[in-house]
Each structure stands twice: as C-alpha cells, then as structure tokens.
Amino acid sequence: MILRTLARVDNRSLKSQGIPSRRRYPRVGKPEGVWVYWNCKGRADTSRVRDLSTGGLFVETADARDVDATIRLDFLVQEGQIRAKAVVRHVRPGSGLGLKFTELAAEDGPRLAALMSRLHSLSRCRTNSK
User: What's the mean per-residue pLDDT of the chain?
Assistant: First the structure.
C-alpha cells in the first residue's frame, strides 16, 4: 500500500525529499497546444497529448487499443513535421493510451528535441509564475 501511495506523489515533492523518479526520460505534463494524428490498424484519430517525453507520450482518447499494438504518429506542432511509430504500453479506458516510441525518422529527431525544449521552457515559466 505504501508503494502505491508514493507512486501518486508529484515528482517535484519526491525530488525535494531526495527520492529519485522511476522515469527513464523527463516528461512534460499537460503540454498546451500539442496534438497528434494517429493511426492504428486502419483506424485514425486526432488526440490531445496529455504528457510527453523523448521516450513516449500519453494521448487522450476514449478509444481503447490493444496493449502492444503499433501506432503511427504525426505531431501537429509549430516545430514542423514529427513522424514516429509507437507501441501501446498501457490503456486507461475512457481516458487514453500510454505509448512508447519505437521509431523516429532521423530528420524528425531535432524537431522532437526542439519541441521538448520549448515545452520545458513553457513549463518552467508556468511553474515560476505561480
């Protein structure tokens, strides 16, 4: 029961207590204005990105997909075209899908890095203005 409670604690409070995050890649939670067009087994949708890291993302959707299903992604962002493939890692019915990146076009890597940099800057600005 204790581990479950710790998993729900905000990462900032964990870091301030000296407890490291289990995440491999830093993420940006609730990035404003980041949407992704995605296609899985011939079914397509456009979804808001709830959180994003260089390792994957969580997309909001009411449509469930099978764990381990492959999804093609096209980000709709100001940095330009970012295309990737991902695999479904977890499903939250009625909420969304946790996706892990499996492929990213070489020319899109710098654009993903630029997107992450912009989102981290915006996230710090929002945090500092509170």
Answer: 80
